[in-house]
Amino acid sequence: xxxxxxxxxxxxxxxxxxxxxxxxxxxxxxxxxxxxxxxxxxxxxxxxxxxxxxxxxxxxxxxxxxxxxxxxxxxxxxxxxxxxxxxxxxxxxxxxxxxxxxxxxxxxxxxxxxxxxxxxxxxxxxxxxxxxx
Length: 133
Ligand code: FES
What we know:
By secondary structure, the chain is α+β, with helices and mostly antiparallel strands. Helix content is 11%, strand content 25%. The chain has a domain at 15-102: 2Fe-2S iron-sulphur cluster binding domain, sarcosine oxidase, alpha subunit, N-terminal domain (Ubiquitin-like (UB roll)).
């Protein structure tokens, strides 16, 4: 952990050297943070900025709002998907994985969008076998 990327003394948080170290993994690599760190802050202090990739394009994603609103920091924590790294405190032994590229249900590159029903009524007709939908 690079302590140069940290605030070492803070009037509210206290001195960094007094905080308890926490060990966790991210994509199989072991990192250390401090008790009270979020996953995002601990990874950032370790130089990790990419938390996942965009589901459709595969472009890197990381911290954006850092207050839990945008969901750009989604990770998988101990098997649970969609965990916001900016809100979730690290725990000893926590296993964090980056979000991976996954197919979207309406991915226009992999589906014939014009064949999808526009309304629920069309969907119901399609399900009933109506060829005029
Ligand atoms: S960075 Fe926006 S929800 Fe985590």
